[in-house]
Amino acid sequence: MNMEYDACIVGTGRVGLPLGLTMVEVGLNATGVDVDPALRDCVNAGRMPFSEPGYDAIVASKRFQVHASPEVVAKSAALVITVGTPLHNHIETDLAQIQRVLSSLTPLLCKGQLVCLRSTVAPRTTEFVRRFIERHTDLVVGKDIGLAFCPERIAEGKAHEELRTLPQIIGIQDEMSRELATDLFSKLSPDIMCTDFVSAELVKLFNNVARYVHFAIANQFALIADSFGANIFEVRELANHKYPRSSIAPPGFTAGTCLRKDFGMINEWNPYPDMLLSAWKMNEYCPAFLVEHLLRRTEIHNRQVAILGFSFKKDTDDTRDSLAPKLYRYVQRQLPSEIRVTDHHLPARIDESTIGSLVNWSIQEALKDAECVFVATNHTGYDAALRALAQQRPDTWIADLWNVTGKNQVFYQARDLGKEKE
Ligand SMILES: NC(=O)c1ccc[n+]([C@@H]2O[C@H](COP(=O)([O-])OP(=O)(O)OC[C@H]3O[C@@H](n4cnc5c(N)ncnc54)[C@H](O)[C@@H]3O)[C@@H](O)[C@H]2O)c1
Fold first, then answer.
1. Percent over 90 (pLDDT), the chain
2. In the prediction, which pLDDT does 420 show?
3. Whether the Cβ atoms of residue 79 and residue 10 lie closer than 8 Å to each other
4. What pairing do the DSSP bridges indicate for beta strands 5-10 and 30-33?
5. Residue 320 lies in domain
6. Which of 9, 76, 165, 401 is most exposed, with minimal Cβ within 10 Å?
7. What's the gap in Å between 75 CA and the centre of ligand 1?
8. Ligand 1 pocket check for 142: Cβ under 6 Å
9. Which atom number of ligand 1 is nearest to the Cα of residue 36?
């Protein structure tokens, strides 16, 4: 098919932009469409709008441009949809972004194109897309146009490596779609696996939900160990050491835009009791666990508190669905004298919808007078900062579910750091 562009990425956010840039790197002529003017200006000026290592040079080359108008879709052999798919406040997928994209794209579709859905979606959403296309155009999927669901399984911060190494799962239901989708994604990875729509949708959800449950069990074990006065870090190390049938994860705040919402996508069609809701409850309880169990050791009321990390994940600047704001609110209920938040991956002010605009202190300023410290994210650098605190404020209590200092205790005082080396 002779088109100006090999691919057009619709929705050039944290998934779409790395994908488009990688396509350009492998020699495809790719372009993008996004409704966010600030994002477009940033990318078109040659800068990354968020942190994702490995892309600075290719974005600076300005070979991948993002357009405001979807008109460019009509000039592209393949359209890859990577818009957001959040949950409503209830256990229900919010399909609004997908529906808006389909409404704007369908008048521009033409014979021979491939439509590829890459956003994470609930089972049967690709079938909804097929019906939508066939209702609003004269095109028939499999005869005139291709349709595939090709899930994105990268981890944030590892997109550059993983887009070229992870196997690409392709959900298709006809030969034309198989050929078009295989041709496009084989440019990224030689490892292509084809299946039907629903199976491909479930692959993505099962990958994420399995991870979510895996971390929930780790957090549950931390609580159980704590209730017996045992040390979770020691128990985990003993359980995993040279034992081929154990891979217990370390405990830690488990959230983020993907893991939590993807369990909802499975659950909206599942009225039966299941373990996924329990995993949700377990992971959501972790901020309360830290506050409640620190209170068994010391006061928070009228104390100076520091919260280390505000993004949902180590060494990223993504705060979507982070549990840190929840921790902040629980600490706030204890009426401390002040809470200082620090996260060196975020800007000088952190805008949080339920809390407001927060000063993002330097780690030194946040820790200067801190009497209680909560480690909300396991960013690199916190170990050294907390060890320095041991000299300046030895009485300070630290709640560290992530074990960033390697102290192997969830709750300890700064003075205890270093003792393990004596
Ligand atoms: N972030 C991840 O690590 C990750 C990993 C795998 C899968 N996913 C899935 O990928 C999808 C996208 O996630 P994300 O993190 O990139 O979200 P995002 O919010 O960063 O990006 C979505 C982009 O789509 C744009 N957009 C919305 N409506 C549009 C429209 N009508 N036309 C054009 N652009 C539009 C937004 O402006 C935004 O830039 C979601 O389904 C998510 O679950 C995310």
1. 91
2. 61
3. yes
4. parallel
5. 208-421
6. 165
7. 22
8. no
9. 37
Residue 261 has what pLDDT? 85
Q: Give the Cα separation of 80 and 274 in Å (integer).
A: 33
Please tell me if the CB atom of residue 7 comes closer than 6 angstroms to any atom of ligand 1: no
Bridge pairing between strands 168-171 and 192-195: parallel
**Angle 189-191-195 (CA atoms, 0-180°, nearest 5)?**
115
**Pocket of ligand 1 contains residue 100 by CB under 6 Å:** yes
* Inside any domain, residue 200: no
Indicate whether 248 and 326 sit together in one domain: yes
Instruction: Judge if 31 and 153 occupy the same domain.
Output: yes
Name the DSSP class of 63. -
Instruction: Output the residue whose Cα is nearest ligand 1's atom 18.
Output: 13
Q: What is the DSSP letter of 321?
A: T
Sort strands 397-399 and 411-413 into parallel, antiparallel or unpaired: antiparallel
On whether the CB atoms of residues 233 and 408 are closer than 8 A, the answer is: yes
Distance of CA 192 from the midpoint of ligand 1 (Å): 23
* Closest ligand 1 atom, residue 16 Cα: 16
Supply the mean pLDDT for the chain: 95
Number of domain units in the chain: 2
14 lines ligand 1 (CB under 6 A): yes
Mean pLDDT of 333-354: 97
Cα-to-centroid distance, 16 and ligand 1 (Å) = 7
34 lines ligand 1 (CB under 6 A): yes
Rounded-to-integer distance, Cα 359 and Cα 339, Å:
10
